[in-house]
């Protein structure tokens, strides 16, 4: 199974369908499995007999020498890859910081950023909406929440895209691995400096909050704080930026659904939910068996890694009738798994939904006659864990 072929990248869903029909778990290599059925995926996400052990999966896929690259040790400090009790402690802390702002305040923050961005390119009548809008919008919001300057952060888009590749299923080639290592070190310097300045002068925002915890009884080490500010920065914009593009593409490829939305804006939250199900921007999450287990009749040994294919689970006909059709008023038969489930359920899900609703409403309502170029053969990023478009050229009538 070639998960890097251009045909797969352009449309992975026919392959997902074959895998789902073939069995509950697909063996990728000894000790590595892929789960594609909704019920199996959902059950594993919620099962405490599965946990995280990122480095063992890395060792298996990269071999003893390449897995020593320091980028993997940095990434392993991400909240996303921790187990209880460290995970519970850090997650409680970060959730508290997220909980500080009410939904209405997050929406206002996002709307203001969207207005400003559209104001910058409106008169041009043509723009790459990925670069001019989908990336900078969630970036502006996460920077405001973290208490860092969005102008600085815009510089790190390339680094962010390089680092997120460490979650790819297929091992990175030497050049990509080097780029990820260098990105991690750029972030360590940047957030290290911010940390030093927050130590001198605490202010609002997640960075100062994490620092306070470091000063408490249960100290977070400097390395942990730096790794997790990097995670929040990256998770806070890569995922949503790609999802804005995927949602717009789905709507423009289904003009009758777009027309329904334009007729009835109360369908917007459902349209966002359906876009998340139909073509999510995060396709894989990983878990490691903490003991020998039976998964729907398949023996999984302690230490084996199971990759949970969220994108495939979201198209499972057992749970979503006629799963390959995009219908913004689809009856709610189950929640899409786009934000995962269980203990690691996405901390930014509420924010992401607000950002997606705001982004779609702003683009569709403020750009008259909006049309996407390249609807038939858009250029996808050559990645399988994160799914998104390289660019999103569009025209309108200013
Ligand atoms: C459409 C946008 C988004 C998607 C599709 C998405 C998807 C996911 C998924 C699938 C997970 C769980 C991974 C696992 O179980 O291994 C996750 C976790 C996480 N997400 Fe998101 N996410 C999005 C937006 C955001 C935003 C905006 C933020 C931050 C502001 C964020 C922060 C996080 C964090 C911190 C975790 C780790 C939680 C933990 O391990 O306890 N995400 N996300």
TrEMBL record:
Domain of life of the source: Bacteria
Transmembrane segments: none
Cofactor(s) it depends on: heme
Descriptive protein name: Cytochrome P450 hydroxylase
Presence of the UniProt keyword Oxidoreductase in the record: yes
Entry's Gene Ontology molecular function annotations: heme binding; iron ion binding; monooxygenase activity; oxidoreductase activity, acting on paired donors, with incorporation or reduction of molecular oxygen
Keyword Nucleotide-binding: no
UniProt xrefs under Pfam families: p450 (PF00067)
Keywords, alphabetical: Heme, Iron, Metal-binding, Monooxygenase, Oxidoreductase
Protein family: Belongs to the cytochrome P450 family.
